[in-house]
Design goal:
The chain is of the alpha/beta class and about 400 residues long. It has 2 domains: about 190 residues, 3-Layer(aba) Sandwich (Rossmann fold); about 190 residues, Rossmann fold (3-Layer(aba) Sandwich), CATH 3.40.50.12580. Helices cover about 40% and strands about 15% of the residues. α2 packs across α15 and α8 runs parallel beside α13. It starts with a helix and ends with a helix. The relative contact order is 0.14.
Length: about 400
């Protein structure tokens, strides 16, 4: 998109935002419902997942059989499943406006639509969809940060009351990453609670669900999102993974023994548009290679794996809290940096082995030393004062309860 087209697109989005804002203000004729909480994930593309899911589950646990809260979830795909106590609502413009205008609390892991208006009595908790990050976000993208993305980020951040953090690293960088200067709550990541509280149960349940033997070993491969807001236009695209799955399985068996199963997982924004991951050389998903992209929540599955591989996904920093081996397979590193900006880390700072080719990845797996890895992980988490103790959801629920009951 050229400069002129970008400017036209921005003007068009601004006009639309003006109308959106006007509608929200007109709808203020409807009163706020004191106990109403509205959840959204990935702009409605996600289902019952990520940080908002675990906050909602904690609130459901607290209310038990009583109808303490009115919980609404805005979702694009009405086939998504939600537990009793949460009402799913089609994420249309009018539905979204009516429910947000009348809610006491908003919980979201992504940005609100440009032009959204919040009332003074309302509380907006921004959980974000990652904590420690690889990818350059916000102003860290420099000249690669599109003007439209800047405008939306700045606008949304002015609405936010609290952003959640799990570390000093995040707290220090969020003002520049999220264009946010408000209060940051160091709660930990709600989506990481299950690694501590439910890992044993999920380790068995996920194997049963995907018909993997009880003693079967699982590796998850979760390449990150490609695309995004470029020059005012939303783009989502995918490429065939270049990972050699057979070589990967052989290396894992040689190093760790056991029968290995690969779970493939796309980013939610891409999975929402695809039925299956395209596999290199026409390899089909089989009993040893299973596509789990359509499952709503990645962390529920991640809690059951033995090894994790990604490229630039913040899920690597989630998985490391279980002290499982995490390997980075960055086969397009230079191209990715050109398109997205410099990564947030010097690779030497990280506890993860990094590979750019299948041969390198095989060597890193074979030479992996668990004791050295665990020491490196402990040092890393301590250095950045990372808080993931299984109680993040409780801390956020406390904030919500305090606001609703005051």
């Amino acid at each position: 998109m050229g400069k002129r087209e970008e400017e036209k697109s921005i003007r068009r989005r601004k006009r639309k935002a003006y109308v959106v804002n006007w509608v929200y203000r007109v709808l203020r004729i409807f009163p706020i419902k004191r106990k109403k909480i509205v959840f959204t994930t990935f702009e409605g593309k996600g289902g019952f997942c990520c940080n908002p899911r675990y906050i909602a589950e904690e609130l459901l646990r607290r209310q038990g059989d009583r109808d303490v809260y009115e919980m609404v979830w805005l979702v694009n795909n009405m086939k998504r499943q939600f537990p009793m106590g949460i009402r799913k609502v089609k994420n249309t413009f009018l539905n979204r406006a009516i429910h947000l205008v009348t809610a006491r609390v908003w919980v979201d892991n992504s940005r609100k639509a440009y032009g959204t208006a919040k009332r003074k009595e309302q509380l907006y908790i921004q959980t974000w969809h990652g904590a420690l990050e690889f990818k350059a976000v916000g102003k860290f993208r420099g000249e690669l940060f599109p003007e439209m993305a800047y405008l939306i980020s700045k606008y949304d951040s002015r609405l936010v009351d609290y952003v959640l953090s799990n570390s000093e690293w995040c707290t220090k960088r969020y003002p520049k990453m999220l264009l946010y200067n408000g209060e940051i709550l160091k709660t930990g990541s709600p989506r990481c609670d299950i690694f501590i509280t439910r890992r044993i149960k999920l380790y068995k349940r996920i194997r049963e669900y995907y018909r993997i033997p009880e003693k079967g070993k699982i590796i998850m491969y979760a390449p990150t999102f490609r695309g995004g807001g470029q020059k005012g236009k939303r783009q989502v695209y995918s490429e065939e993974p270049t990972l050699d799955f057979q070589k990967l399985i052989n290396a894992l068996h040689k190093k760790f023994h056991g029968a290995w199963y690969v779970l493939l997982r796309l980013h939610p924004q891409l999975a929402a548009q695809m039925e299956a991951i395209p596999l290199k050389n026409n390899i089909n998903c089989s009993e040893r290679i299973i596509d789990v992209s359509q499952a709503d929540d990645m962390n529920e599955i991640l809690a059951a794996v033995d090894v994790f591989i990604t490229d630039y996904s913040s899920a690597a920093f989630d998985a490391v809290n279980m002290r499982i081996p995490v390997f980075l397979y960055m086969d397009d590193l230079q191209e990715y940096v050109r398109e997205r900006g410099e990564l947030m880390w010097n690779m030497d700072e990280l506890p993860f082995p990094v590979s750019e080719t299948n041969d390198q990845l095989e060597k890193e797996i074979i030479k992996f030393d668990k004791n050295i890895y665990n020491e490196t992980v402990d040092t890393f988490l301590k250095k950045y004062n990372v808080l993931e103790d299984g109680h993040a959801s409780e801390r956020v629920a406390d904030v919500i309860e305090k606001h609703i009951l005051k």
